[in-house]
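<instruction>
Derive structure tokens from the sequence

<record> Sequence and structure tokens follow
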Amino acid sequence: MENLNDIFNLSVDDFKSEDKKETTNYKPDANSGRDGVYKSVVRFLPWHQNPKKSVMQKWSCWLTNPLTEESKMVDCPSSVGKKSILQDMFWKLKKSESVAEQKLSENFSRRQVFASLVQIIKDDNRPELVGKIMIWKYGVKIFNKIQAEMKPEFGKPHIPFDLFEGKPFLVHITKVAGFNNYDNCRFLDEKVPVTIDGQKMEKSEGDLAKIMEFLKASPDLSTYDYREWDEDTNTFVNDVIRNSVPGGRMIESVERTNRETTKSAPKPAAQMSAPAPSAKIDTTLPELGSANELNLDDDFSKSFDDDLYGSL
């Protein structure tokens, strides 16, 4: 029998749509913490599809078209060593004799961003996240702390992504001059194995299989990798430059550079798929010379390869 009472007793709440989409991004923020301080404990995890890229890194620029007010984040081609119209525009304006143009250069400044998989170990601000694997997008301060662990000035190196010898990471964010400050973040002293459903994993055949399945269910870290510009992005960047920068000669020069860069740009690589459990993969990471690179040493690479693939 139909319930006619619902028809005659409508409420605004009946028409509220619930957003059931679960986010995969971890966003600790001092404003969300207690008394302006956000504290939690996480554990860095390797990306099973490509352990060499357990730290995604790129340069990005937030651009706004002053005519349409459309804004978007654009990956800078310099992230992969290509000539960048964004860099060219920045330096042409920065080196200008005009104070106004020097100020305008800020509209084309880049910032370096990183992203890694983390398991949430403890978070009283968001207890429902504990145990989950999420993507943490962070800046150069956190990256430098990771580098300092792997290449310490004194003492033995530590690989934060090691599944059995990794150290938990204390997230301690405060507010300084209106911005999140990460100076108090640090790695804890104790090395602990990865934990699944509250149980510490061991290097047994059964636990190795559990770990592999656990990692396979993690969010897709490749979404934070550098992306080649498509036609829409090229058009957007050109429009931003044309509507932001006075002076026809400068615009013509930059647009010519952009056209040449676009013609020489290779097609985007196909998205990497997860290797079969029985496949042997190379998990060594490239040697690092700058903050644009991450180096996980051979011990971690061999451990990840042998433990998670050799025994399955």
